[in-house]
């Protein structure tokens, strides 16, 4: 998979070159490139923002650098070769990012993330992007961040680990919170008693059927307590 990220703070993404995703990058499973939006400006000050038409607080990201960046990274619609990219703009006004979103996006062969800052990006950029690929506005949740960078880091990590070969043991992907619509069961390791706290005896029983049943009950109970919205089917 190819992932391009455009940001005015490219060094935010240095962390993605480490650990899990760093290895996937090195082995060629994941081709991740981070670009500085200011490379597509033409003025001495490398300006990326301007005041909003109609007035109001804050600044808006100018369309021209975004247009050039998307042209360069998405290619012309007639270039052939590559499948049209999926162009993702992190936005608190977008659809909420879920595990199912990560699974869907992990099947694409080219993702482009455009990180907005300030009060947002000139609306015409989204229209222009739609000429080049499928545009998605995606939010991390119902709270406000200063820009899209932290949201994109989270999304790239959630998507990247679902690409075959990125996570060493694929079974570890199945037994996690949200993969089956429930929160995950509690885990324990040695010692069997620690500071007078014993591991639930069932886990030491060797009865694999009973253990599976107990874990399922724990998943349901935790989900009921912490995330009833998941059980109601409205999440
Ligand atoms: Cl994707 N961007 C920003 N700026 N704030 C957010 C968000 C995204 N998701 C939740 N809050």
Automatic annotation (TrEMBL):
Subcellular location: Cytoplasm
Highest taxon of source: Bacteria
CDD domains: TrmD-like
Residues binding S-adenosyl-L-methionine, per UniProt: 116, 140-145
Enzyme class: transferase
Alphabetized SUPFAM superfamilies for the sequence: alpha/beta knot
Chief location: cytoplasm
Catalytic activity annotation: guanosine(37) in tRNA + S-adenosyl-L-methionine = N(1)-methylguanosine(37) in tRNA + S-adenosyl-L-homocysteine + H(+)
Chain ranges of the tRNA methyltransferase TRMD/TRM10-type domain: 1-231
Pfam families associated with the record: tRNA_m1G_MT (PF01746)
Enzyme Commission number: 2.1.1.228
Keywords, sorted A to Z: Cytoplasm, Methyltransferase, S-adenosyl-L-methionine, Transferase, tRNA processing
InterPro entries the record matches: Alpha/beta_knot_MTases, tRNA_m1G_MeTrfase_C_sf, tRNA_m1G_MeTrfase_TrmD, tRNA_m1G_MTases_N, tRNA_MeTrfase_TRMD/TRM10
Family: Belongs to the RNA methyltransferase TrmD family.
Subunit structure as annotated in this protein's UniProt entry: Homodimer.
Functional note: Specifically methylates guanosine-37 in various tRNAs.
Protein name: tRNA (guanine-N(1)-)-methyltransferase
Naturally occurring in which organism (per UniProt): Microbacterium panaciterrae
């Amino acid at each position: 998979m190819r992932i391009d990220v455009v940001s005015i703070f490219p060094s935010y993404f240095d962390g993605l070159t480490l650990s899990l995703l760093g290895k996937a990058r090195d082995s060629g499973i994941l081709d991740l490139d981070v670009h500085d939006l200011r490379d597509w400006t033409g003025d001495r000050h490398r300006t990326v923002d301007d005041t909003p038409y109609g007035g109001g607080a804050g600044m808006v990201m100018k369309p021209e650098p975004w247009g050039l960046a998307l042209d360069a990274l998405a290619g012309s619609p007639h270039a052939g070769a590559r499948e049209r990219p999926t162009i993702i703009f992190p936005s608190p006004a977008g659809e909420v990012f879920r595990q199912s979103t990560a699974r869907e996006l992990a099947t694409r062969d080219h993702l482009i993330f455009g990180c907005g800052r300030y009060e947002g990006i000139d609306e015409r950029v989204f229209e222009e992007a739609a000429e080049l690929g499928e545009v998605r506005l995606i939010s991390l949740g119902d709270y406000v961040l200063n820009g899209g960078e932290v949201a994109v880091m989270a999304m790239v990590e959630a998507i990247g680990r679902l690409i075959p070969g990125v996570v060493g043991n694929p079974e570890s992907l199945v037994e996690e919170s949200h993969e089956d619509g429930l929160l995950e069961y509690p885990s324990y390791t040695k010692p069997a008693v620690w500071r007078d706290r014993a591991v639930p005896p069932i886990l030491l029983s060797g009865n694999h059927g009973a253990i599976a049943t107990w874990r399922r009950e724990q998943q349901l109970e935790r989900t009921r307590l912490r995330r009833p919205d998941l059980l109601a089917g409205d999440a």
